[in-house]
Design a protein that fits this description.
Shape: globular
Strand content: 15-25%
Order of helices and strands: HEEHEHHEEHEHHEEHH
Strand order of the largest sheet: 6-3-5-4-7
Structural class: alpha+beta
Number of helices: 9
Number of strands: 8
Radius of gyration: 24 Å
């Protein structure tokens, strides 16, 4: 993102996304004021790319099974089964793993925010969900914060994208943990509506409360299968339509970075990579079963777990 030095003129909501927009609109968000404090201009915001009976529990399409692989400690031969992520954006298991990874990766970054605000941004619902529609939110936010008025107030922040569908079209929106001086709700709402036709809500929140709130949508299956339009009991679409929505959602969200730091937080994140530790010897080096057998044959394994061969299918006897 270029240096934010000039006030951008009011830019229209992207034509191709606007053409896809339906007539559905979100209800007006409640106004709230944030805490006042010192701030500066941001410097970057990058694009990255069942039954309908009331009260019945929905039956999502069965997900593809996750691949299970065996790893062995390079020091003692202890066996560990690991699950390979399918990386599907609608897979609950993978999304739970993403939640904890993102929480660990961004909790230190969020603590750097001096004047926290929780900003919620919506755009009009759309009939068809595309990658361009989803990316129109960070692009519009980038244009908004380039305006001179916001350069003097906004330092940076952390943006989390979310898409839902409750039966009245696709509803893309974003939650932003913002580091900024006091921003009037009325002006924000006016400027955002000018850019996208959407609406805004802003309120003061601590980073410790705002970060889990933003990321909780990442940690569960997306709410894209409903037909009740947020009225009365939750109702869900037919299995065939569920599959269609899931395919459309995954195609639109593929390759998009759903959590993006910008401004003063950009480039400071430290991705969390959990370390797999051997429960027997505390080692952190792991190899495949073929690698382990090669090390045993060559005498490179320091200490082999006594019952390793009994547990490993390649070396088990006929009764095992």
């Amino acid at each position: 993102m270029a240096e934010l030095s000039q006030e951008s003129q009011g830019e229209d909501y992207p034509a191709d996304a606007q053409a896809e927009a339906g007539a559905w609109r979100q209800p007006a968000a409640g106004a709230a004021e944030g805490a006042r404090g010192a701030a500066g201009p941001p410097t970057s915001l990058e694009d990255s790319t069942t039954s309908e009976h009331e009260g019945e529990v929905p039956r999502p399409p069965l997900p593809l099974p996750h691949e299970i692989r065996s790893l062995y400690c390079a020091h003692c031969g202890e066996k560990k089964l690991i699950t390979i992520r399918c990386k599907g954006r609608t897979c609950p298991e993978c999304r739970r793993a993403d939640f904890w990874r993102l929480m660990k990766g961004y909790e230190g970054l969020a603590s750097l925010i001096q004047h926290p605000k929780l900003l919620t941004l919506t755009i009009p619902n759309v009939v068809r969900l595309t990658k361009n529609v989803v990316l129109s939110i960070p692009r519009a936010l980038k244009r908004l914060f380039r305006r001179k008025y916001y350069q003097d107030l906004v330092c940076g922040g952390l943006l989390a994208l979310e898409v839902t569908n409750t039966g009245n079209g696709w509803h893309p929106h974003a939650h932003v943990l913002l580091d900024a001086d006091y921003l009037p709700q009325q002006k924000l709402d006016k400027d955002w509506k000018e850019l996208t036709g959407g609406m805004v809500d802003i309120r003061a929140r601590t980073p410790q409360n705002a970060l889990p709130y933003m990321l909780k949508y990442v940690g569960k299956a997306p709410d894209i299968y409903r037909t009740d339009q947020n009225r009365g009991f939750k109702r869900y679409c037919s299995p065939d339509e569920r599959i269609e929505r899931e395919l459309e959602y995954n195609a639109a969200m593929k390759g998009i970075r759903t959590v993006q730091p910008f401004g003063t937080l950009y480039g400071k994140e430290k991705p969390f990579k959990p370390v797999l530790t051997c429960a027997t010897c505390g080692g952190t080096d792991w190899i495949s079963e073929w690698g382990l057998q090669s090390m045993i044959d060559e005498g490179d394994v320091l200490e082999v777990n006594p019952d390793w061969t009994a547990r490993d299918p390649m070396h088990a006897d006929e009764s095992g």
